[in-house]
Amino acid sequence: MSRTDNSDGQAQRKVVIVAYDGAKLMDISGPLQAFSDACFEDGHPAYQVVLTSEAGCPVPTDTRVKLETVRLDDAVIDSVDTLLVAGGDLIMPASAPCNRQIMRKKYEYPNLEQLRETAERAEERLRATEKRALLEIDRELGAVAKLQKDLDETTKRADRRDAEHQRAVDALQAQHR
Predict the structure, then answer these.
(1) Is 155 a domain residue?
(2) Cα radius of gyration (the chain)
């Protein structure tokens, strides 16, 4: 599948989800559904999602539902944009071939930790910016409420003055009759 599948030339991202015996079904199905549903504006899929396992065979989850997978080696791990490893109650030994392969890939991409830290800092900045924006919105709403109250009071005063003026005009007209 081409990495630029839509008419706007936007690159489709590759997501590889690694499953293993006893992994939590929700930890697999949730991301799988979210990435599978994501589309570009033209309707083309934004992600190519590949469900993998070490052996590339049906994998029983914690609920004993078996999921069809492809072999991790066959997922062309070098061209992966996002790699997700499903969670579970079981502890996967670091010596497992699947984990060794993932660890090798981690060392092949030494800046992965730096990228992760940069992403975390960006998320923190985003949260701070969002908080400031919400505070600014609250201030603006307060200012709008104050202005509306001032406008209502000014309108009432103008209505009273108009009524007084109309009474004065009526009184003058009554004198001239």
Answers:
(1) yes
(2) 32
State the first-to-last Cα distance of the chain, in angstroms, to the nearest integer. Answer: 95
- Specify the 3-state DSSP secondary structure of 6: coil
Give yes or no: residues 19 and 59 share one domain: yes
Residue 22 shares a structural domain with residue 99: yes
Backbone angles phi and psi of 15, in degrees to 5: -115, 125
Amino acid code (one letter) for 177: R
DSSP letters of 46-87?
SEEEEEEESS-S-EE-TTS-EE--EEGGGG-GGG-SEEEE--
Which one is predicted more confidently, 33 or 54?
33
Residue-wise pLDDT tens digits, 128-137? 999 999 999 9
Query: Looking at residue 96, which CATH number applies to its domain?
Result: 3.40.50.880
Average pLDDT, the chain: 82
Domain range enclosing 37: 13-109
* Polymer length in residues for the chain: 177
CA angle 57, 55, 107 (to 5 degrees): 140
> In the prediction, which pLDDT does 113 show?
66
Q: Whole-angstrom Cα distance, residue 174 to residue 130?
A: 65
Of 80-84, 139-143, 154-158, the least confident: 80-84
Q: Which residues pair with 49 in a beta bridge?
A: 15
Give the predicted TM-score (pTM) of the model. 0.49
